[in-house]
Amino acid sequence: MTGYWHFPAIASVLAILYLILDMKWLLLLFIVWLLWLKLLKKMNRTVWLITIFSFLTFVYIVPVVPQTEYEESSIAAEVTGNIEGEVKASSKQIQFTLQPLHHSTKLLVTYFPEKEENYRDIPLEHSLFHGSRCTIHQQIEIPPSSTNPAQFDFRHFLLQKQITHQAVLQDFNDIECISEKGMLSFLYQLRTDLLNRMEDTWSEDTAVWINAIVFGDASAMEESITELFQRFGLSHIIAISGTHVTLVIAFLYLMLVKGNIITKEKTYLFLMVFLPVYSVLAGANPPVLRAAIMMVGLLIFQKYRWKFPYSDLLCIVFMIFILWDPYIIYHVGFQFSFAVTFSILLSQKWISQSKSPVWKVFQVSFIAQMAILPLQIYYFNIFHPLSIFMNLMVIPYFTFFVIPVMYVFAVISFLPDKMIIFLNDIFVFIHERTLQFIGWIDQTLFPPMYLDKLSIISVIIYFVCFLLFMQFLEYKQEKAAAIIGIIFILPILMTASKPYFQDEGIVTMFDMGQGDAILVEAAKREAVVMIDAGAAFHFEDMEPTRGVYKNIIRAYFHQRGIKELDAIIISHDDVDHFGSVRFILEEVNVQELIVSPYFDVTLLEEFQEIQPSLKISYAEAGDLLHFNDAISFQVLAPDADKGDANDNSIVLYTNLGLKWLFTGDISKEIEEQIVRDYPALQIDILKVAHHGSNTSTSEVFLEAVQPRAALISAGRDNRYNHPNEEVLEVLERNQIQVYRTDEQGAIQFYYTDGGGTFSTFLP
Question: What residue stretches are annotated with the Metallo-beta-lactamase domain (predicted)?
Answer without folding.
Answer: 514-716
